[in-house]
Specification:
Elements: H1 11-21, E1 25-27, E2 39-41, H2 43-62, E3 67-70, H3 78-84, H4 86-89, E4 91-96, E5 103-105, E6 114-118, E7 124-128, E8 156-159, E9 163-165, E10 175-177, H5 183-188, H6 190-197, E11 203-212, E12 227-237, E13 242-243, E14 246-247, H7 248-266, E15 274-278, E16 290-298, E17 301-312, H8 314-323, E18 329-331, E19 336-338, E20 341-348, H9 349-360, E21 361-366, E22 369-374, E23 385-389, H10 395-409, E24 414-416, H11 422-431, E25 436-440, H12 442-445, E26 457-462, E27 468-472, H13 476-483, H14 489-493
Parallel strand pairs: 3-11, 23-24, 23-25
Antiparallel strand pairs: 1-2, 4-5, 4-8, 6-7, 9-10, 11-12, 12-20, 13-14, 15-16, 16-17, 17-20, 18-19, 21-22, 25-26, 26-27
The structure holds glycyl-adenosine-5'-phosphate.
Length: 501
């Protein structure tokens, strides 16, 4: 915690530090100096990310009668990427510094602060804010923003796909790619899924999986990385259908946009931190009729969290043409084959982790002391219950706490901790977003020396209100079934006496 009066570090720095310190996210290969923009999920991070993916899958696949799932391979036939347009169009313009050899996105070089050796001050070196001129000589950046000395090359197109070789021989014929999006795995399996599952339009195919992009300017923690996970839906619609007089693809697009926005708020994201942004005509991808981004107010500013595009029949037609296989749907009513249109809600799992963390992070004052708390939705919280003994020297208290942890761990991620005093243990759990703590104390087990009988109850403390109730140990499974289900704390707490803080 910073000293009073000291400037607090920016939110992103605090999160990066908390994530490392508390086992959420580590830099990849850190002991070797780290790898550029890839990250590893630690014990709490993997739980959080899995909870996000599980909630997404349940809500978008299991609970919907019109959706099915898929898990396609990362390495696909290279012809896929030719047909999809990735080989020709999945590029960013880049420039190289002739001096320091660093590489930049041509459209971003003026968006970063730049280094300048100013002739008006005998060549002194200055760091100048992005887009501003030098205060002394009024010059604007023309040289490399990083070293300040080198000329930049003319922009060249740089393909973002990772290339590799399939098989033992490294030759052009064996070149293949790591997929840059999960979507294409769905398109090439369209007919397999349609036929095997006997589906009727409209229906969707969902997939969660890794994607790889050799981003030129990755960064901002897990916001933009070179290896990341996507949660994508391709929702197929008959373009000849109408709903209330409007083309079905346009109506379904609107519905998905509203559905996906509501999904983030359902899991606790504050509505004021979410907004929609329509793509302008000149920024639309070559395949898209309309795209709307769900943006989140990240510490770096409003940025894309999920894109929801109407990709029309572009992908199915491209793959049909390139493979020679029909990718159509037989419309029974019209007795004709049709190429479906597709609505694509495409979310990033890692970007969602970041947005949920940013949204949940709070610094609060409690009885004159600061506490850091992650107000994560109970379904997303990595640990659901922490069991804490009040006195670790009392063997009967410790063993009862272990028994309780073992019982609750059958149903929920539950931890035991006795490595500090109770106040400190509570703060530690607050900081990682654990919604409930169970404390075992002397009254739970009684004190024969003092002639005090056991009451067989433990204290449950709720993270956000910090309220506490006394609950019989035997009730715990049922109480947590309610609390970690849909019953509110207020409703459950009404049935039990409060505990003294
Ligand atoms: N199939 C469509 C598609 O891939 P996209 O807008 O390029 O569209 C969709 O990516 C989502 O994937 C983004 O909204 C973002 O959440 C995530 N994403 C894309 N590139 C990423 C990267 N380099 N690092 C982390 N997440 C990324």
């Amino acid at each position: 915690m910073p000293k009073p009066g000291a400037e607090s570090p920016p939110l992103m720095d605090k999160l990066v530090s908390l994530c490392k310190r508390r086992g959420f996210i580590f830099q990849s290969s850190e002991i070797y100096g780290g790898t550029g923009s890839v990250w590893d999920y630690g014990p709490l991070g993997v739980e959080l990310k899995n909870n996000i993916k599980r909630a997404w899958w349940r809500d978008n696949v299991r609970l919907r009668a019109d959706m099915v799932g898929l898990d396609a391979s990362i390495i696909m036939h290279p012809a896929v990427w030719k047909a999809s347009g990735h080989i020709d169009h999945f590029t960013d313009p880049m420039v190289d510094c002739r001096e320091c050899k660093r590489r930049f996105r041509a459209d971003k070089v003026d968006e970063t602060p730049w280094t300048h050796y100013c002739p008006a001050t005998k060549g002194n070196k200055f760091e100048i804010p992005a887009g501003e001129p030098c205060r002394h000589c009024q010059a604007r950046r023309t040289l490399c923003p990083e070293c300040g000395r080198g000329e930049l090359t003319a922009p060249r197109q740089f393909n973002l796909m990772f290339r590799t070789f399939m098989g033992a021989v490294e030759e052009d014929a064996s070149v293949t790619y790591l997929r840059p999006e999960t979507a294409q795995g769905i398109f090439v399996n369209f007919d397999n899924v349609l036929q095997s599952m006997r589906l009727k339009l409209p229906f969707g195919i969902a997939q969660i999986g890794k994607a790889f992009r050799n981003e030129i300017t990755p960064g901002n923690f897990i916001f933009r990385t070179r290896e990341f996970e996507q949660m994508e839906i391709e929702y197929f619609v008959n373009p000849n259908d109408t709903i209330d007089g409007r083309p079905a693809d346009e109506v379904m697009h609107d519905r998905w946009i509203q559905d996906r926005l509501a999904w983030y708020t359902r899991y606790g994201m504050r509505p004021e931190n979410l907004r929609l942004r329509e793509h302008e005509k000149d920024e639309l991808a070559h395949y898209a009729k309309r795209t709307a981004d769900i943006e989140y107010k990240f510490p770096i500013g409003w940025s894309e969290l999920e894109g929801i595009a109407n990709r029309t029949d572009f992908d199915l037609k491209q793959h049909a043409q390139a493979s020679g296989k029909a990718l159509t749907y037989f419309d029974d009513e019209r007795k004709a084959h049709v190429v479906p249109y597709v609505i694509e809600p495409s979310a990033g799992a890692d970007r969602s982790v970041l947005a949920f963390l940013v949204d949940a992070y709070r610094e609060e004052e409690v009885r004159g002391e600061k506490r850091v708390v992650l107000r994560l939705h109970r379904e997303l919280a990595p640990v659901k219950v922490a069991v804490l003994p009040l006195l670790k020297k009392r063997a009967d208290i410790v063993s009862r706490a272990h028994e309780i942890r073992a019982r609750l761990a059958r149903d929920w991620v539950t931890v035991y901790d006795d490595t500090a005093a109770i106040g400190r243990l509570y703060r530690r759990q607050d900081e990682v977003g654990t919604p409930y703590c169970v404390t075992v104390d002397v009254r739970t087990v009684g004190d024969t020396d003092k002639g005090e009988a056991a009451d067989g109850r433990v204290t449950i403390r709720e993270r956000d209100s910090m309220e506490q109730i006394r609950v019989p140990v035997a009730d715990l499974p049922h109480v947590f079934q309610q609390l970690l289900g849909d019953v509110s704390w207020a409703q459950v707490a009404a049935a039990y006496p409060p505990a003294e803080n």
